[in-house]
Amino acid sequence: MKNGVQMSRNSKLVTGRKKYLSAIIDLYDRSIVAYILSSKNDNKLVMDTIKLAMKRNPKVKPVIHSDRGFQYTSHAYRDLKNKFGFKVSMSRVAKCLDNQPIESFWGILKAEYYYLHSFVSEKELIRGIHNYINFYQHERIITKFNSLTPSEYRNKAINEA
User: The whole model's pTM is what?
Assistant: First the structure.
């Protein structure tokens, strides 16, 4: 059920300077488990995002699926996996469809929010991304889930368990 398989990926956003958004999505309900914005697309960004996800759900030992980016093939990632006990799954080479759920989230975020706004400052971008993710979790319905939001779908499953 919840927290079984999660996907991690980074996406680039630009407001004068490049910003990178790293997120982990739960495949059960499409909720965003953790996310961090940074000015660097490096190992630290991915490691900090995973640490945040593990801190929020310390009992969960998910499978974390990712592409084969340098962050996910690094020694630091392997060490983090050993520390927290999650399993690793990686997409096949040149098979972007293996990452469809997280890529779909990036497309939704960019189409429904990012491309529709001109950001004056990094602070405005950060606040806006935070607000959009909150909207996505608690207000944006997903047809696949009988028109429930990710948080409603998760809560329904918990209450029925």
Answer: 0.91
